[in-house]
Structure formats: C-alpha cells, structure tokens
C-alpha cells in the first residue's frame, strides 16, 4: 500500500464536503472522468459507484464500495469489480488542524497483467500525489 499526506489551507468541513461528494470528482480530478452512483445508504451517502478511471497507462471502469464508518475522519473504498484491476482499495484520512486540514490518501492497486510490483507502486504514488494536489487546488480555489 502506498500513501502520502498533504496539508490543505481549508477547514475540515470544506475538505470533507469535496471528498464526500463523489459524483463531482470529475470536476476536480483528472484521473476520474465519470461517476455513476449505484447505491446509497439511508443517510444518502454513496455506498456503491462505478467510475471511469484514466491514470497514466491505466484506463478502466471500476465498481467501488464505500465504507463511511469512520466519517468524517476517514472514508474507505474497496474494489468490487473492474476490467483490468484486480484490487483497488484505499482510504482518505482527514485530520482537523483548525483553519487547515491534513489529508492522507492510502491506495493499493493490483492488475490482471504481469507488471512488476515496482511499476505498480510507482503508479500508486503518482496517482496519490496527483489526486492530493488536485484536491488541494480545488479546495484552496
């Protein structure tokens, strides 16, 4: 599993609002081009979604399930189905710093093709760093 952390100059409420609105990911994330919600819980939160992902050489439509048990401090996701990916599990972990928010993104990916683990880890880190940078830019306006 790869992870990285960034500090965003925005309060936790603003950052979590952006992160928890999964349907709007394509508005700020270059790697997520489309989101279709497939399931919601009683509170209206997305618990299932299909996303079209384009991250470097990796392009796939993934079905993810979301776990809100740790919200608002943590949002976890897990791969349910995909074409190329065999694993895509991760979490956003948020820490309230007052006027700022620390965001850690964890991601673990597996693919159905024979690719060296070093290359997979490099793509994980690249995806994480790009996602965090784009989240920061979107939240800080």
Question: Which SSEs are present, and which pair or pack?
Answer:
Elements: E1 2-8, H1 12-20, H2 25-28, E2 32-40, E3 46-55, E4 58-67, E5 74-82, E6 85-96, E7 101-111, H3 117-140
Antiparallel strand pairs: 1-7, 2-3, 3-4, 4-5, 5-6, 6-7
What do you see in this structure?
There is one protein chain. The chain has one domain (2-140): START domain (Alpha-D-Glucose-1,6-Bisphosphate, Chain A, domain 4), CATH 3.30.530.20. It is 26% helix and 48% strand. It is built from 3 helices and 7 strands, in the order E-H-H-E-E-E-E-E-E-H. The chain has helices at 12-20, 25-28, 117-140; strands at residues 2-8, 32-40, 46-55, 58-67, 74-82, 85-96, 101-111. The protein has a 7-stranded antiparallel beta sheet, covered by helices on one side. A hairpin with a 2-residue loop joins strand 3 (46-55) and strand 4 (58-67). The radius of gyration is 14 Å and the shape is globular. The mean pLDDT is 95.
Poorly predicted runs: none
**Name given to the CATH architecture:** 2-Layer Sandwich
Report the sheet-strand fraction.
Answer: over 45%
Molecular shape: globular
The proportion of residues forming helix, as a percent range, comes to 25-40%
CATH class: Alpha Beta
Biggest β-sheet strands, sense, barrel: 7 strands, antiparallel
CATH superfamily: START domain
Radius of gyration, whole Å: 14 Å
How many structural domains in the coordinates?
1
Alpha-carbon distance between the two ends: 30 Å
**Secondary structure: number of strands:** 7
Order of helices and strands: EHHEEEEEEH
Calculate the mean pLDDT score and round it.
95
CATH fold assignment: Alpha-D-Glucose-1,6-Bisphosphate, Chain A, domain 4
Q: How would you classify the helix and strand content by structural class?
A: alpha+beta
């Amino acid at each position: 599993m790869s992870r990285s952390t960034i500090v965003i100059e925005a309060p936790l409420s603003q950052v979590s609002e952006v992160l928890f609105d999964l349907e709007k990911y394509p508005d700020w994330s270059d790697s997520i081009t489309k989101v279709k919600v497939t399931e919601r819980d009683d509170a209206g939160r997305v618990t299932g979604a299909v996303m079209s992902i384009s991250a470097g050489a990796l392009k796939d439509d993934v079905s993810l399930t979301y776990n809100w048990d740790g919200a608002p401090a943590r949002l976890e996701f897990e791969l349910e189905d995909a074409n190329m990916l065999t694993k895509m599990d991760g979490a956003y972990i948020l820490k309230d710093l007052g006027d700022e928010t620390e965001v850690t993104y964890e991601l673990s990916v597996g693919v159905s093709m024979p690719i060296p683990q070093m290359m997979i880890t490099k793509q994980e880190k690249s995806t994480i760093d790009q996602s965090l940078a784009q989240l920061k830019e979107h939240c800080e306006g």
